[in-house]
Amino acid sequence: MSSPFDINGGACVAMVGKDCVAIACDLRLGMQALTVSNNFPKIFNFAPGTYLGLTGLATDVSTVSDLFRYKVNMYRLREERHIAPQTLANLVSSSLYERRFGPYFVSPVIAGINNTTGKPFICGFDSIGCIDFAKDFIVSGTASDQLFGTCEGLWEPDLSPENLFETISQALLSAVDRDALSGWGAQVYIIEKDKVTQRLLKGRQD
Amino acid sequence: MASIIGHNPHSNSIGYSFSQPTNAGNKEHSFYPYTDNGGSVLGITGKDFAVLAGDTRSTSGYNINSRYVPKVFKIGGDQETGEGAHILLSVVGFAADGLALKERLDAVVKMYKYQHGKPMSVRACAQRLSTILYGKRFFPYYVQAILAGLDEEGKGALYGYDPVGSYEREQCRAAGAASSLIMPFLDNQVNLKNQYIPGSGEGHALEAKKPEPMPRDTVEQVVRDAFTSAVERHIEVGDGLQMLIITADGIEEIYHPLKKD
């Protein structure tokens, strides 16, 4: 059997623009080479303008997203305010490290705008919670090599929300078309202060 | 106490034995004749030219053997200067096999000229390279090859190969360590994949942009962008970029430094 990270397939990417961030994922769910579903979104909302993308083993994607829904709900009830993306990042990190010797097989990505500072924020993690704070973009999933290539080639600083949408969409679609385990449509979130746009991309259906 | 330590309970007090030791486990010896020398190459064709480029780093594992080992070669030209060559070959993978393959193809192209009194066409050379690679089907040249030149009509021609000779004529191809990073970028920027003409239809019924042969300076810029991107994210790619451009006027060589980290 191959790596648990490569059984179900999937890809996720986050990017920073000027006063905006974007996060996008593909929609495929597979079992090795067999596609089981073309409607399996990997991005989850945890506060207005705060999103978490999860790729890896699908059962862990569901489990971990449910776990964080519970934890973030408890946070909101205790604190009587929404969780900031930075706080969510630390929550994700410590929660994953709790399972240091029996990890969830997921590669999380966070994208959001901090409600108090108004600053864009993205970060990524390995499966045991090591945070990768990036100023440009974060990639994860079975198409991560391809995403590194497209993002490194297409991304530039201070993109407007419209140009950021085009950039992240082209980067994701071109990347997943070169990965047999990812694709079958995509979901893109463009996050601005006080405004979130969600778009569904068709992409190649093979 | 000393008598207990000094006495070996398995020998019959004489201290030596003629019987073979029974627990001397068999040592498995092995020899693996291939190494991965890393690096990446990429080729793009234009209307009346073809570009073949490769980084010049040679690695084995995490070590850098050299910062200048060319992976792109002129075929069918003078031994030293490469003058008179009309075909380009790039090989990435196991450098020793790549060099051997280049030498063999070079000899074949020269012999063809001596025997037929005319230079070998790129189409013929492409088929011959496939035959050479398949000839070692069960002990392959561990390389991904790309062949470039100008076809019978003077258009840029590019052929991509797998290690055992399966080949195809293409508009662009990336090979080697960072091919997974470069190829989707090329799909997008050269073949305009996933790009549509705005307002050309309703909803998803948009008309796709048609790829057209790019001018030479654009191609060179795309090649440089592809490699600077690959250098950022792949440790086996870097040091220098060697770019060979073949036109009807001959072959031009351009060298660009890349990051050495």
UniProtKB/TrEMBL annotation, chain A:
The keyword Zinc does not apply. PANTHER family: METALLOPROTEASE TLDD (PTHR32194), PROTEASOME SUBUNIT BETA TYPE-3 (PTHR32194:SF10). CDD domains: proteasome_beta_type_3. Its main location: cytoplasm. This is Proteasome subunit beta. Belongs to the peptidase T1B family. It comes from Aspergillus lucknowensis. It is found in: Cytoplasm; Nucleus. Component of the proteasome, a multicatalytic proteinase complex which is characterized by its ability to cleave peptides with Arg, Phe, Tyr, Leu, and Glu adjacent to the leaving group at neutral or slightly basic pH. The proteasome has an ATP-dependent proteolytic activity. Pfam families: Proteasome (PF00227). Keywords: Cytoplasm, Nucleus, Proteasome. Component of the proteasome complex.
Automatic annotation (TrEMBL), chain B:
CDD domains: proteasome_beta_type_1. PANTHER family: METALLOPROTEASE TLDD (PTHR32194), PROTEASOME SUBUNIT BETA TYPE-1 (PTHR32194:SF2). Gene3D superfamilies: Glutamine Phosphoribosylpyrophosphate, subunit 1, domain 1. It comes from Aspergillus lucknowensis. Keywords: Cytoplasm, Proteasome. It is found in: Nucleus. This is Nucleophile aminohydrolase.
